Amino acid sequence: MNEPVLDVRNLRVAFRARRSSVTALRDVSFTLHPGRTLALVGESGSGKSVSSLAIMGLLPPNGAVTGGAIHYRAVDGSVSDLTTASKSEMRARRGAEIAMIFQEPMSSLNPLFTIGDQIGEMLLLHTDLDARQRRQRVLEMLELVEIPAAASRIDNYPHELSGGMRQRVMIALAMVCNPALLIADEPTTALDVTIQAQILDLMRRLQKELGMSILFITHDMGVVAEMADDVAVMYAGAIVEQAGASELFARPSHPYTRGLLHSIPMPGRPEGERLVPIPGTVPPLHAMPEGCAFAPRCGLADEACRKPVSLSDFAPNHRVACFHAGREVTHV
Ligand SMILES: Nc1ncnc2c1ncn2[C@@H]1O[C@H](COP(=O)(O)OP(=O)(O)OP(=O)(O)O)[C@@H](O)[C@H]1O
């Protein structure tokens, strides 16, 4: 396989609270290869967004990378560690080489400017195109993301568009400089299922046509099944299972991954099957259990789980952080 675009190694992120600090990412490692989609999946609070903000160099002021590295391979083949990049280096990369789309387009789009101006602004920042060329390129982007009547929509303000159309604008904004890496943080969560399917289709088509690599952040295993080539399951700031998507769905082996799969309807599973929510919630960062963080919610937990557990090989290209990996939960 080609050299990775992104190779995150033992990444640690901490947030300062008033008198103490809490660790939000604990030795997170994953690899994204060119042209592929890696899904980071987990419940709210598992550390998915913190991972993406660390990659973008956009952690909030009270957050910092406290260990590990984020190796990024630029289009010219040079590899650098984003955790040590300067603010100006990151500013030059964001939008041009590494782009991000968020769940809620309204919070990323400026209500005071037309969508054409906002997408054009990216070109103004990162290219030498003149005003006429920029407008032409914006129009092509709006057509590429299938905005109907793009020539008149280009002068619309965000509030004049539907939610689905706004998400298409966000995608156009992210893709206009042809980034090598796209980070998509729950891009379809706020949309109804029909529109969600259309946006996922669009992202797959753009990936095929433009060849970018996608880090896809979601809590939804159904979306993972639709989009991912590779999957990293996160729980309480750590990766608990990692595999190719087909291997993960064929042999989910961490009790948390199995719990996620049993808690939602999945294509291909018997109709009327009982859905079982995972009991309890993700522990707060200041009250992490000593050993396996999932143990308090796990039907397989025993004495062994009081010891810290880390990812280990379970099968080829399949790693699991569980002393009981692969064992069936007999009671939930
Ligand atoms: N600015 C902050 N200060 C302190 N803690 C934070 C801050 N931002 C995030 N955290 C904590 O980091 C942990 C991981 O949060 P994160 O937003 O990455 O989770 P997530 O998996 O993306 O969840 P969601 O799907 O809800 O966005 C959470 O416990 C959260 O409370």
Automatic annotation (TrEMBL):
PROSITE patterns: ABC_TRANSPORTER_1 (PS00211), ABC_TRANSPORTER_2 (PS50893). It is found in: Cell inner membrane. GO terms for molecular function: ATP binding. Its main location: membrane. Pfam families: ABC_tran, oligo_HPY. Residues 8-261 form the ABC transporter domain. Keywords: ATP-binding, Cell membrane, Membrane, Nucleotide-binding, Transport. It is a peripheral membrane protein. CDD domains: ABC_NikE_OppD_transporters (cd03257). Belongs to the ABC transporter superfamily. This is ABC transporter ATP-binding protein. It comes from Nitratireductor aquimarinus. The lineage of its organism: Bacteria, Pseudomonadati, Pseudomonadota, Alphaproteobacteria, Hyphomicrobiales.
